[in-house]
Amino acid sequence: MKPRYLVLAIACLAAFAAPNLGGAQEQRPPVSQCQAIAQTIPKVTFASFSGAPPLMPAVSEGEDVKLTFLGHSTFEIETPSGIVIATDYNGWYRPATMPDVVTMNKAHSTHFTLTPDPGIKHVLHGWSDVPGEKANINLVVGDAYIRNVTTDIRFSYGLGGAHENGNSIFIFEIAGLCIGHLGHLHYELTDAHYTEIGRLDIVMVPVDGGLTMGADSMSRVIKRLRSSLILPMHRRGPPVEAFVSMFGKDFDVANAPDDSITVSMRTLPKKPLIYVLKGVQ
């Protein structure tokens, strides 16, 4: 074989043998630890997370997550590594420190703001501005994986009437815990919704008794989810007791002495607990 052909053949062999560097650098989407059936999850956007994780950021049992009720349907969630998340953020109820992530829904203006502080790195809308499309959120920030499940809303104050997929149930997978925020839920969930949501160890549930759903309908959702810790929110008008009265002996009920709770996989209640944080009563 002539030298120039020999060089060409070696180059071709080398090209076939070389690793696919582009593919090796792609980060695989995390697999939800909370979904009942975790199959195909859309590609995720990785933020402030290095490496190419096979599943999720590493966590260990016993790591604490702190949840603080700030007002209406806004909770501050603080992860073990210090990531701060604010739910249904409207700019009025703010964590003491700048949140890294805020989630929003659009049923009315107490659940969102179109002018959030520019210092907030991740602003997640629970709706899509493209007609006919769903909001699709898969985001890893530090030790938190955030995804959403969309539901319909029957009205939107100041933003028009019914909106298909206008609300998002945000799910936060942190330190092995599956934490859900139901947002402004207007309709009872379908089997498809429950499958997409999967397991929720902790759920934040609106208990207004009408602006979202009646106490009986909302209680059916909570009974089906069978979460270990139920945190009421979004109370307007009726007392929390109207919601609590829908539950029997299979659920414990307690009023918290303050506005926050720290919980881990290890400290989850063994029996479902409706825990009314200070400020919700």
From TrEMBL:
Alphabetical list of InterPro entries matching this protein: RibonucZ/Hydroxyglut_hydro
GO MF terms, alphabetically ordered: hydrolase activity
Keywords: Hydrolase, Signal
Signal peptide extent: 1-17
Pfam families: Lactamase_B_3
Transmembrane helix as UniProt keyword: no
Keyword Coiled coil annotated: no
Protein name, per record: Zn-dependent hydrolase
Source organism (scientific name): Rhizobium ruizarguesonis
